[in-house]
From TrEMBL:
This is phosphoinositide phospholipase C. Its EC number is 3.1.4.11. The lineage of its organism: Eukaryota, Metazoa, Chordata, Craniata, Vertebrata. PANTHER family: 1-PHOSPHATIDYLINOSITOL 4,5-BISPHOSPHATE PHOSPHODIESTERASE DELTA-3 (PTHR10336:SF33), PHOSPHOINOSITIDE-SPECIFIC PHOSPHOLIPASE C FAMILY PROTEIN (PTHR10336). It catalyses: a 1,2-diacyl-sn-glycero-3-phospho-(1D-myo-inositol-4,5-bisphosphate) + H2O = 1D-myo-inositol 1,4,5-trisphosphate + a 1,2-diacyl-sn-glycerol + H(+). Keywords: Calcium, Hydrolase, Lipid degradation, Lipid metabolism, Metal-binding, Repeat, Transducer. It is an enzyme of class 3 (hydrolase). Gene3D superfamilies: Pleckstrin-homology domain (PH domain)/Phosphotyrosine-binding domain (PTB). It comes from Homo sapiens. One of its GO terms (biological process) is intracellular signal transduction. Its cofactor is Ca(2+). GO terms for molecular function: metal ion binding; phosphatidylinositol-4,5-bisphosphate phospholipase C activity. Residues 42-151 form the PH domain.
């Protein structure tokens, strides 16, 4: 019979305690999202080219997260692929074709029907993208427009509850409805709380 190592601490787990209203709202939101064909395609993800200059065109995977409020994308950097997120609430407008200055200057290699621009609020630069097909570009334009309209229709309380639940869901990396100390640290980092 072996004795437990006194230096070993079992990893504590705590149950995710999400308000029932927020959980019900989130489930309803996700179910209604997956009924929309454009949003379903965004949830699967698309390989879109980010355009910054005549020669700088980088292909990245863009995918709508299950919370319906954020878009995940992966940069390909040698030896260090990184992942990033932008939020639907930070989008000011979604434009199709060569309507941005960047695409008018540098998007000539791509048909206007395949291009879209995501303009952000504040100082963040526009995101100029080219899709593999015109239909895929249209799906992203229509899908982001619908998501923005849905977000605008939510009350402040609904947005807050949805935001809290989406962060808890993202922080629960193994999706077991419990949070380890490591997952709690990750959650705090997501909401810019230094430890």
């Amino acid at each position: 019979m072996s004795l437990p190592d006194p230096g070993h601490r079992p990893q504590k787990r705590c149950h995710l305690d999400v308000p029932h209203f927020a959980h019900a709202l989130w489930c309803l939101h996700i179910n209604s999202l997956t009924e929309d064909e454009d949003v379903r395609a965004m949830l699967r993800g698309s390989r879109l080219r980010k355009i910054r200059s005549r020669t700088w065109h980088k292909e990245r995977l863009y995918r709508l997260q299950e919370d319906g409020l954020s878009v995940w994308f992966q940069r390909r950097i040698p030896r260090a692929p990184s992942q990033h997120i932008f939020f639907v609430q930070h989008i000011e407008a979604v434009r199709e074709g060569h309507q941005s200055e960047g695409l008018r200057r540098f998007g000539g290699a791509f048909a206007p029907a395949r291009c879209l621009t995501i303009a952000f609020k504040g100082r963040r630069k526009n995101l100029d993208l080219a899709a593999p097909t015109a239909e895929e570009a249209q799906r992203w334009v229509r899908g982001l427009t619908k998501l923005r309209a849905r977000l605008d229709a939510m009350s402040q309380r609904e947005r807050l509850d949805h935001w809290i639940h989406s962060y808890l869901h993202r922080a629960d990396s193994n999706q077991d409805s419990k949070m380890s100390f490591k997952e709690i640290k990750s959650l705090l980092r997501m909401v810019n709380v230094d430890m």
